[in-house]
Amino acid sequence: MNIQDAKRVLEAALLCAREPLPLRELKLLFDDPVDAVTLRPVLDALAEDWADRGLELVELASGWRFQSRPAMRLHLDRLNPEKPPRYTRATLETLAIIAYRQPVTRGDIEDIRGVTVGAPMIKQLEDRGWIEVIGHREAPGRPALFATTRGFLDDLGLASLAELPPLDGSGLGGDPNAGQTLSLLPPDPVLPEGAGPELRPTPGVEDRQDDPAEPADRATAPNLARPDGADEVVAPSPDDAVTADVLPVAAPAASQAPDAEVAADPRPPTETT
């Protein structure tokens, strides 16, 4: 196989593709059988040819694609002044928990965040193509197990879940083992979605403000950290308690001085029906 001809073929296919192309599809471009071991060095050489240009060839979770370099974003935004949709901090927290602790149920997310996770929030992430249901936990009610998709990694510019930033020592929800969950993540999520909007919290939204929805059934979603499946009741923080000010109470009307005529009447009061 001629390397220069192969690079031109790959370049044309990748520039015209609307989605990242995996190696199994790129191999179909050639008449002679080509394996991944032979094709990968050609792709690396093609990426090197584009090193000083406005586009770059990158490998993502779902395949290879050309994309604009981050330095070009300021100029490209002038052609498309519309701002991408932004997500609340609560939505991004939920997405982060799913990414690092997957597979998780809605009840697991609520145990970590300490607040109710609304169904519209989960549906929003599903509609965006960032999470999906990969199964159900064998527990009462069989709650759905959520995990991230390849489209989620593509939108972040990552090739695998191992490239996610490592967690600090505190972990998620105070779990010291949360940073070790990357090795337990499923290796093959669903097919990718399109390029996504910015993952930034919406300004002015409180950290603990969630979408209104009915709370998930905790009985159907036991915490992963509790093997006995017992429900855990989260005690309210002392800071959340509302302190009532002591207000002066006006004297009741019955304690006021009686009328002079009533005071002079020696007969006891009679209850009327």
TrEMBL record:
This is SMC-Scp complex subunit ScpB. It comes from the Bacteria. Residues 205-217 have a biased composition (Basic and acidic residues). Residues 246-263 have a biased composition (Low complexity). One of its GO terms (biological process) is cell division. It comes from Aquariibacter lacus. Residues 167-273 are annotated as: Disordered. The keyword Cell division applies. The gene is scpB. Keywords: Cell cycle, Cell division, Chromosome partition, Cytoplasm. Gene3D superfamilies: Winged helix-like DNA-binding domain superfamily/Winged helix DNA-binding domain (1.10.10.10). InterPro entries: ScpB_csome_segregation (IPR005234), WH-like_DNA-bd_sf (IPR036388), WH_DNA-bd_sf (IPR036390).
